[in-house]
Amino acid sequence: MLPISRLFTAAAATAAGLVLTTAGAFADPVKFDFWYGLSGDLSNVVQQMCSNFNKSQTDYQIVCTSQTDYDTNLQNTIAAYRANKQPTITQIYDIGTATMLLSGAVTPVYQLMADNGYKIDWTNYIPGVRSYYSSSKGDLWSMPFNSSTAVLYWNKDAFKKIGKDAAPKTWEETADDMKALKAAGYDCPMAMDITGDESWQFMEQFSAIHNQPIATENDGYDGLNAQVMFNKSMFVKMATDMKSWYDQGLMVRKGEKQGEPYDAAFAAGHCEMTIDSIGDHGTIGKTAPKGMQWGTAELPIYAGTERHNTIVGGASLWVLKGKSAGEYKGAAAFLNWLAQPDQALFWSTNTGYIPVTKTGYDFMTKSGFYQNPIYAGREVAVESLSEGTPTPLTRGIRLAVMPQIRQEWGNAMQAIFAGTVSVQAGLDQAADRSNADLAKAAAQYKGATLP
Amino acid sequence: MSPEAISARAENSVSPSSAFVTGDALPRAGDPADAPKIARNTSGPPAKNKGRAPRSGDKRAVFRNNWLGFAFAIPQLLLIFTFFYWPASQAIYWAFTLQGPWGGGSEFVGLDNIKAVVTDPVYWDSVVRSLVFAAVSTGLSMGIALVMALLVDRELAGNKIYRSVLVWPYAIAAPALGLAFRFMLAPQAGVLAFVNHIWPGIWDPTINGNEALGAIIFAFAWKYVGYNFIFMLAALQGIPRSLLEAGAMDGARPLRRMVDIQIPLLTPTLFFLLVLNITDSFQDSFGIVDIMTGGGPARATNLMVYKIYFDGFKGLDYSGAAAQSIILMLLVIALTFIQFRYVERRVHYT
Prior knowledge:
Chain A is of the alpha/beta class and 451 residues long.
């Protein structure tokens, strides 16, 4: 009995001590929670950022908690919201945007900032970034945070061998280069994969830069009755070409399950090109062998088409309903602090993500960030996102079941590559299944409308 | 893995094994009236052991107060209620309503969710693949385990080492196991990659569905070989030596003794392991599938439990996933029933 009672005494003493310390501090800072879906190095950067914010002022204290990955964070945020234990701010990945807009659980960021007296020039945000997270009226519903887009990585050393000093601009040119590389003895001209997630660079980004519809209703922005279109758009040509290049050994599937992911295969010099997120720029730079010359370029387009902007990837910050006025004040202060150019520099220096505002980009350009050989090439992502003005088909994607659509797309591409189904039949089947998922989601959110 | 599945797993591995040990530790030649009853416990599925008042006749002498026993059971009952009955009832509720992910607006839709699931050809494809997975992985793991147990029981050289080493695979968590096999079976960099150097493209589970299914079956069977082995060996060692010696004196060779004496006396254990392996292959396969194949290529390894996870957690279709779990539960109950109804007839308990 004695040890137990001693334990109680100790616990009571600790509790009392805690109460005293918190009570002792004059003017308690308002605490609020921020959940995010990053881990490892990126999580450390977020924690550093949170502690910087806490040190920068005394009114608020942000408590940042990693939920491991995007999927888990969305699941946990939903579970917490259902139990009324939600954080004030949560980080949700790009393809969760429609789910968040339909949830009815969100306080729009533009409104939060206005309510708390912050005047933010929303046009300062890079068009391709802003349009993804805006309502159909153009108001930002979430705060752009870690942002990336897809770029072409190319190995300059290998291209020198085939007598070229520039990355291909069109898919036709890419095909010629792949053949030349193959002829020059490189057995993996371009690394790629089709697990489903790569729908992002090969179908979604492809459709945006070619101004092709991913779904009806302007990619879902105009209503929940949208139907996918990737089986009727120019993507069919892309898929047919991909299959043919795969069969010729020009495109090689590289992934974790094959033994080497495509970014690692490019970084190691095993493959001479790949299409990947700019977010991997840092890792590729760190893991590439010393002296390897490589660069980035905007994604290839088909000859005779006009280039449009790519769409943003990554995640944004959402403010949830049901918190106190004090917590909202804190959240607004945090988001405002985050939007400052020096924070863009901090974030982009420590991660591979790009600045989301024009002033942030200008600030970084002026500070010589992109002249630094370590970071050179990352400006391509900002340029790619800023090509022209976003059209109704290049603003982003607003479909509530993107995870399923990507899975269906992956299943179809795997069957097509295995040769068990034709390109058109495979894509048609994926589209039918995606549309059934979309219909189900529309029933789940009956009565809700996209803002 | 969901908490209820984990607690169910914990029960699976604890209750039958303890029943088994008590059953077998008793000398067979002991009280003839008691022996069959105790031996029967060896074969009981975990759920039934729990429900049946266990040997109340024996215990009454010790516990006269019923409430005291109940009080001791409360922590466990509370756990089972919290991690099994409550979530299961929630799943049934969700299966008959249309749940918005964010809560609120749960509209009663009757059998719509179930109908949507059973009219989907992809769902039946997943059921067939799960059944193939269950049958082949159970057959493989039990077959290999039986051969190894029979050999170790013959006290071949090194049997003491095998006895302790062979159970280790079962202690490896499914995701860790999946990761190890993913590395080994990777077509471009794994241990098997050399076959692709000799015959390019012959081994690629990332594009060939049958190879992928084979890979997860192999990984799952590998994990359960050790578990089955330890049970079979314990049961073999419980077989009175006198029977084998009598057989030997009558001129039966080792193989004949295995077929006519050891295996028939092993059937209660084999039956118990069959029920357990099949049940586990439906739920414990998740970690392996998630890490090794992610359900692909082209749905070739999209087992029922993985589909539930994907639809529910990634697709946020709680109602559809709940409907699928109900069907999975009914399927496992039906399979267990069939095994008790038809397979158990061939089991010799004495």
